[in-house]
Amino acid sequence: MVEGEAEGRVVKMINSDDRIAELKAFDDTKTGVKGLVDEGVTKIPTLFHHPPEKFPIASDAESTMIPVIDLEGVAKDPITRQQVVSRIREACETWGFFQVVNHGIPLSVLEDMKDGVRRFFEQDVEAKKEVHTRDDMKAFVYNSNFDLYSSSALNWRDTFACQLAPEPPKPEDLPEVCRDILLEYGANMMKFGTILFELLSESLNLHSNYIRDMKLGITEQIRCAGHYYPACPEPELTMGTTKHCDASFLTVLLQDHIGGLQILYEDKWIDVRPVPGTLVVNIGDLLQLITNGRFKSVQHRVLANLIGPRVSVACFLGSSVKPSSKPFGPIKELLSEDNPPKYKETTSAEYVAYFCAKGLGIPVIEHFKI
């Protein structure tokens, strides 16, 4: 089957009554993809089948490691800070992704956070069912595929999500198996996010508090998602996470040793190989918008895998279950006669609503171009 035929088949399936019934039956189990694996499936349901990908995977000879930036001494040594700012600027303009070492979050916290994700998804099924919901306004949300009814193909992944900042959740609203580490991780991420936004402001040749002083609340908002990718018996037919850009200002990702994250760079999929102790940072659509396209929000995906389970933790900075209704657009100091606005003003509420309605895999930033 050629790519166009496969895509056509998927589009038809979206509106199929049988498909809707299948989706509802899957959702009603409240056990997600892990439930399928626990049942011993050897053939994945067609709901998870993805059409062929048109972009090739870069060979080892072609593949280039995304920038790794060391933050050691960035708060104390002005020369080191200038060098770091320069490297961040280059990474944001070229790759849209970079990895960070010496970020200030203890290795023990990173490991405990990954363990907390595993504990949640591998606990007793009945305990998970109690917190299963599709109401994003809940303090803690667990389900499989947030865009279950709008996506053309499901991803081989289960997820929990919670808002960690500006106000941390009440401890009693979080599952006991990961409660303490979620709160500790959120506190650490708040500090790290503040540093990142300062360095990003400086990399735009603006004062360090510029993005924070825009009063959009973006430096205070952190939405955290714990992802669990069970081993897949037919990984070539599906995706862990389909290709997409993030509807945030900035995303900070903690991934385990298994790998599978790829970014689209120069029309080839490049592996973002796990490096112990690092955090992966990527530009979101909203940061691309306010920098008038100077910083790149690039497509990325996660491959399904045979070995699993893979776990990761994504913190979306500038993302909230209650997005702001304050309008914003390209930063005026970055505009000129030769560099007029490329994007219209919007609000994070409008942007996130459009993103959620479209589902993963549908480019969103283009909709806001002038």
Automatic annotation (TrEMBL):
In its keyword annotation, does this UniProt entry include Iron?
yes
Q: Does the keyword Acetylation apply?
A: no
Q: Name one Pfam family in it.
A: 2OG-FeII_Oxy
Keywords on record? Iron, Metal-binding, Oxidoreductase
InterPro entries, per database record: DIOX_N (IPR026992), IPNS-like_FE2OG_OXY (IPR044861), IPNS-like_sf (IPR027443), Oxoglu/Fe-dep_dioxygenase_dom (IPR005123)
Every Fe2OG dioxygenase domain range: 218-319
User: Cross-referenced PANTHER family, in alphabetical order?
Assistant: 2OG-FE(II) OXYGENASE FAMILY OXIDOREDUCTASE, OXIDOREDUCTASE, 2OG-FE II OXYGENASE FAMILY PROTEIN
As for family, the record states: Belongs to the iron/ascorbate-dependent oxidoreductase family.
Protein known as: Fe2OG dioxygenase domain-containing protein
